[in-house]
Amino acid sequence: MAKELKKVNVVTVGVGFMGGVTLAECAKAGLSVVGLERGAPRGLEDFLEIHDEWRYAINYGLMQDLSKETITFRNSESMPALPMRRLGSFCLGDGLGGAGVHWNAMNYRFKPYDFQIKTLTEERYGKNKIGPDYQLQDYPLTYDEMEPYFTQFEYAIGVSGTPGPFDGKRSKPWPMPPLAKTPAMKLFEESTKNLGYHPYPIPAAIASEPYTTSDGMQLNPCQYCGYCERFACEYDAKAQPTNTFIPAAMKTGNCEIRCHCNVVEILHKNGKASGVRYVNTLTQEEFIQPADVVVLSSYVLNNAKLLMTSKIGTMYDPKTGKGTLGKGYCYQITPGASVFLKEPLNLYAGAGALGMVIDDFNADAFDHSNLDFIHGGSIALAQTGKRPIGTNPTPSGTPRWGADFKKQSTHYFNRTLGVGSQGASMPHKHNFLDLDPTYKDAYGLPLLRMTYNFTDHDKALFSFISKKIEEIVKGMNPESIAVKGMIKDYNIVPYQTTHNTGGTITGKSPEDSVVNSYMQHWDAENLFVVGAGNFTHNGGCNPTGTVGALAFRCAEGIIKYARKGGMLA
C-alpha cells in the first residue's frame, strides 16, 4: 500500500529545465515545492575531466533506459506499432536535469510568425494554403506578449549572441557577446554574404565570458573542448538545470528534490488534481505526494503519456478530428550537406552552439506564394567538435573498410564541415500520440504510441532547403560535397533531432487545446502541463528558448493560482 506523505503547495513531475524553472520561481515566491525526478542525481562532480565518448556519445550514458520506458512507433494507422528498442531519431534525457544536461545549448526564440501562424498565413496567402488535412493553429499569445518571458529565461541561463536580422523585437540585448568566430564559421559567413543572405552567430546558452545569472549563479567562460552534445559540461560554462535553476530553488529553503522517483499516476477527483503516486525505483516502495498544484514538467512524450494513463483530458481521434490530447505531434526535417575541404582546420575544438546561421528562409521571411509549403528553416554551420570514435567522414566512393578507408578517414577528420537545417513541421491530422494497446512499461502501464510520417509539406520544404544548402556549400571553396538524399518515410533511426513537439498543445479554448495560455489544464484547474508539447507546430530552429519562455509563463500562472485559485484568464 502506498505511503501518503505531507502535503506541499507544488509538486513537479520531472526536474529538467521546465521543472527547474517552476521549482525556482515558486520557491522564491514562498511556496513549498517538491521536485520528483525518476533518474539519478547528477552534478558537476560527476563530470570533472571525463571525456568518455564511448560511454556518453555512443552508448547514451545520459539517456533514458529503453528497457524500462520507451515508445512504440508506426508510420500510419494501418501499420502495427513496434517498440523503439534503441535510441536513434531522438535522445531522451534521464536523471536530474533531464535533456537540459546533454543539450547543445542552441537557444533561439521562435519568430513572431510562429505565434500567429494561422492568422498571418491566411492574411498573406489565403485559406487552405497547404490543404485541409493540416491543423494550423495560433498560440493564445503573440510574440510581443511572450517577449518578457523570453528575456527572463535568457538572463536566468546566460546567452551569448547578437540579435538576428529577422528576429522579433527585444526588450534587452543578449546577456553576453557571441562565442568566438572560427575559420570554419568565416567560410560559411563569406559564402552566405556573397549570396546576399544575412549570417549571424548562433545564440548560445554557453558563457563567452564570466557571467552571473539573474539568480546569482556563476557561469565560467567556455573552453571549446568539443564535448557538449550528449555530455554534461565540466566547466559550468554551458547552462544546465543543475547549475542554474535547481541550485536557485534549493537555496530558498522551500524546495526538496527527490531522485529515483517515477510518477505513475496523477491523482484527481471532481475536476482537480490531489497529488501524484510514485514508485521509488531503487526500493520499489510506493508513495503518494499530495499537493495543491501538480505540474507535469517532464519530456514531451512523458507528459502526454501520464495524462493519458491518468485519464485526464479527451483523447484525439484522427477519424473525427475531435479531442485534443495527443493531437498535433510534430517533428522536424533535417536536410544538409557535408563539405570536404582541401586544407585542414582545427575542427576538434568546438562547442555545442558554436556556429553561424541564416534565417533568410525561416518562418515567413520570404515569399511562399508559388511554393507548396509554408514556414521554412534556419540554415547553419555548427562547429560542435570532432570526436575520434563518431567522426569518420569520407568522400563518396571511399571503401567502407580497409587501408583506403583508414587513410581517407584520417585525412578528412579535420577537413570536413557540415551545413544543415531544421525545417519546421506542421501538424497533420494523421500524426498523433496515443496509448499502445499491446505493449507496457516496467510498471505495467501502456507505452505511448507514436503515429508519424513525413508529409507532402515536409517533402516540399526539404527539397527547397536542400537546394539552398547546396548553393551555400558550393560557395565555400570545397574539394567536394555530399548533399543529403531526399526524405521518404520517417524512421525512428538514425538520429535527426530531439525536438519532438505537440500532444499537449496550448490554445484559447478546451475545444482546440489541452492547456490555456498559462499551461493550466482545461479539465483540472490545479494541474499545469509545460514543455514543447504545448507547441501548436514545430518551428525552424531549436525549441529550448521558446520552451523556457513558456515555463516562466507557466510559473507565473502557478503563483497566481496559488494566491487566488480558479481558471486564469
Summarize the structure.
The protein contains 12 helices and 20 strands. The protein is an alpha/beta fold and 569 residues long. It comes from Desulfovibrio subterraneus.
Please, could you describe this protein's structure?
By secondary structure, the chain is α/β, with parallel strands linked by helices. The protein has a single domain (3-43, 92-564), classed as 3-Layer(bba) Sandwich (FAD/NAD(P)-binding domain), CATH 3.50.50.60. It has twelve helices and 20 strands. Strands 1, 2, 3, 9, 10, 11, 12 and 20 form an eight-stranded mixed sheet that branches. A hairpin with a 5-residue loop joins strand 7 and strand 8. Helix 1 (17-28) runs parallel beside helix 12 and helix 6 crosses helix 12. The longest helix is centred in the C-terminal third of the chain and has 21 residues, at 544-564. The mean pLDDT is 96.
Shape label: globular
Tell me the name of the CATH homologous superfamily. Answer: FAD/NAD(P)-binding domain
> Any idea of the CATH class?
Alpha Beta
Total number of strands: 20
- N-C termini distance: 40 Å
Keywords:
569 residues; 20 strands; alpha/beta; FAD/NAD(P)-binding domain; 8-stranded mixed β-sheet; 6-stranded antiparallel β-sheet
Task: Please outline the helices and strands.
Elements: E1 3-4, E2 8-13, H1 17-28, E3 33-36, H2 53-58, E4 71-74, E5 82-83, H3 99-102, H4 112-115, H5 117-125, H6 143-157, H7 183-194, E6 200-201, E7 211-212, E8 218-219, H8 245-250, E9 255-258, E10 261-269, E11 272-280, E12 286-296, H9 300-309, E13 336-340, E14 355-358, E15 377-382, H10 403-412, E16 416-423, E17 432-440, E18 446-451, H11 456-474, E19 480-483, E20 527-529, H12 544-564
Parallel strand pairs: 1-12, 2-3, 2-12, 3-9, 4-18, 12-20
Antiparallel strand pairs: 4-5, 6-14, 7-8, 10-11, 11-12, 13-16, 13-19, 14-15, 15-16, 17-18
Helix pairs in contact: 1-12, 6-12
